[in-house]
Design goal:
- By secondary structure, this protein is of the alpha+beta class.
- Helices cover 19% and strands 24% of the residues.
- It is built from 12 helices and 17 strands.
- Strands 9, 10, 11, 16 and 17 form a 5-stranded antiparallel β-sheet that branches. Strands 7-8-15 form a 3-stranded antiparallel β-sheet, with no helix packed on it. It has a 3-stranded antiparallel β-sheet with strand order 13-12-14, with no helix packed on it.
- The longest helix is centred in the first third of the chain and has 15 residues.
- It is globular and about 65 Å long.
- Bound molecules: heme C (5 copies).
- The site of one heme C has 24 residues, from helix 5, helix 10 and helix 11.
């Protein structure tokens, strides 16, 4: 009897992450990797839990896994270092996010990410396989010197340099109706760019306080919430003047759609400065609206994409305005986004949350004619 239940427990655990649920707390890394820790601490990976991310909380609050099952299935990606992750992912069990449980608050922790050994592909969402050795960390850069705190296994794991380390959580998330809620095209073979090279660029400052290096990989994870300025070079904007109209070209050079989460709404604002007069032209909106029965619906209920005007991977989108430009005119364009589509704010109870309702400016440019 005992044997059978042990076997069952083990096979269920495999579903989560290899039955490995003990991770060194991220603050233990701070003394020797202070810059990396500081960057990381302000990133969405350190703040992906319901207590720290109001947008995530708003959706979780309404989710049937919360209201009916009391099971935080989101933990697979949002709090993978949780000591009760298996319960969160095992049918029939109950396990809710807990502010007082420190392992929940570790979110996507340093040690969790640096122990990703390989990635198992699955239809609904991938699974990270975590190494059993608590204090051996994978990396990409060096293995010449020993750290006094941990071992480093750099050479055996190519996932850190090629970006695969990210796709366990980011590649896709398919709901019960088979709708992919969030799809990130996997790495761009053509340009050689990958998740890591774009989102963790090399920045100034040593990666540890023990061994001096000029640079380290940025751990603030540039994205839609924070540090998006580090990514603006991957989206080029230009304006082409014709006789009776002009075209704003938005050239997305990243290997995935401009924004990925279906809650987002990107906007291109255009105006023309003519002498002292400022002429506002129609805005262009880029969204992916998911829904059911022809109406927008929450991620767990949606079974189809109703509309997709989001700028896709490596797409150059032409936005035409029937406006005749004159000599001396200046065209001002602003590309940015709302993290939560303003139409969904109220139904999620986010109408008073600055982070959800403010407009994030991504790129601002002027063109003189
Ligand atoms: C397979 C991994 C995975 C699972 C499971 C998952 N998420 Fe996420 N979630 C992500 C990733 C990756 C992002 C970041 C996507 C982005 O920024 O485009 C994200 C972002 C979000 C956001 C946007 C947060 C913000 O601050 O803008 C919300 C809301 C969200 N998830 C809700 C949930 C809820 C609720 C659950 C559980 C019912 C869940 N997710 C389960 C991977 C996952
Ligand atoms: C007592 C100091 C100390 C502590 C604490 C420490 N490290 Fe390190 N770490 C180092 C040193 C020194 C190196 C450089 C070793 C080398 O050059 O090979 C290093 C290198 C690394 C690397 C580099 C791998 C690569 O690409 O070469 C990773 C990843 C890493 N540490 C992760 C962590 C994590 C995660 C924690 C916390 C759980 C942590 N470290 C805590 C001293 C420390
Ligand atoms: C254990 C799962 C997991 C892994 C592995 C992971 N992420 Fe994430 N990532 C998330 C979740 C969950 C979020 C959303 C957090 C939220 O908004 O609450 C996120 C958010 C992000 C964001 C959005 C940040 C912002 O400011 O909006 C970026 C960019 C990102 N991840 C890049 C990466 C990269 C690059 C890697 C690989 C080095 C990676 N992630 C690995 C789970 C993961
Ligand atoms: C060529 C550069 C490039 C590559 C390669 C790339 N990205 Fe991005 N990523 C961008 C740009 C540009 C944006 C949009 C600006 C922003 O969100 O700050 C973005 C946005 C994101 C966001 C935020 C989207 C949202 O809706 O919140 C996530 C998450 C993300 N990328 C993850 C990844 C992952 C995971 C990979 C690898 C599979 C990857 N990116 C590969 C450039 C890149
Ligand atoms: C989402 C996954 C993820 C998280 C979380 C994460 N790292 Fe990393 N880390 C990486 C990847 C990927 C690289 C390789 C970067 C490269 O090759 O450019 C890396 C590189 C490093 C390096 C080598 C530095 C360098 O310049 O190449 C150190 C040291 C390190 N991480 C420590 C940490 C510490 C400490 C934390 C927490 C404070 C942390 N990491 C959190 C993914 C992560």
């Amino acid at each position: 009897m005992k044997k059978v239940s042990l076997f069952l427990a083990l096979s269920l655990a495999l579903f989560a992450n290899n039955a490995v649920h003990e991770f060194a707390p991220s603050k233990e890394c701070a003394s020797c990797h202070p810059k990396i820790y500081e960057e990381y601490y302000g990133s969405m990976h350190a703040n992906s839990t319901p207590d720290k991310d109001v947008i995530h909380k708003a959706v979780w609050d309404k989710h049937p896994h919360n209201t009916k099952l009391e099971q935080y299935s989101c933990g697979k990606c949002h709090s993978p270092a949780a000591n009760d992750l298996d319960k969160m992912l095992t049918k029939g069990e109950k396990a809710l996010p807990d502010v007082k449980n420190e392992t929940h608050q570790e979110a996507v922790s340093c040690a969790y990410c640096h122990r990703i050994e390989s990635i198992e592909k699955h239809e609904q969402s991938n699974t990270n396989i975590i190494s059993k050795d608590k204090k051996s960390y994978y990396g990409s850069t060096r293995s010449s010197l020993e750290s006094p705190y941990h071992k480093i296994i750099t050479k055996e794991n190519e996932h850190f340099a090629n970006g695969n380390v990210c796709i366990g959580c980011h590649s896709h998330n398919v709901n019960k109706s088979g709708l992919n809620l969030c799809s990130t095209n996997v790495n761009d073979q053509m340009s050689g760019a990958n998740c890591v090279s774009c989102h963790m660029p090399k920045v100034e400052g040593s990666f540890s306080s023990i061994i001096e290096t000029k640079q380290h990989a940025f751990h603030g994870f540039a994205g839609a919430h924070y540090n998006s300025d580090m990514l603006s070079k991957y989206v080029n904007i230009s304006v082409l003047r014709n006789i009776d109209n002009f075209i704003v070209n938005v050239d997305n050079q990243s290997s995935h759609a401009l924004l990925l989460h279906p809650m987002r709404m990107a906007v291109l604002k255009i105006n023309v400065q003519r002498g002292k007069e400022k002429i506002e032209l129609e805005k262009e909106v880029f969204v992916r609206v998911i829904g059911k029965d022809g109406k927008p619906a929450m991620p767990w209920a949606a079974d189809t994409t109703l509309k997709n005007s989001m700028i896709q991977a490596n797409e150059k989108r032409e936005v035409k305005r029937d406006f005749r430009l004159e000599k001396g005119d200046k065209v001002n364009v602003v590309l940015g986004w709302f993290l939560v589509n303003p139409k969904a704010l109220e139904s999620l109870g986010l109408e008073n949350e600055k982070v959800a309702k403010e407009f994030h400016v991504f790129k601002k440019q002027s063109f003189s004619f």
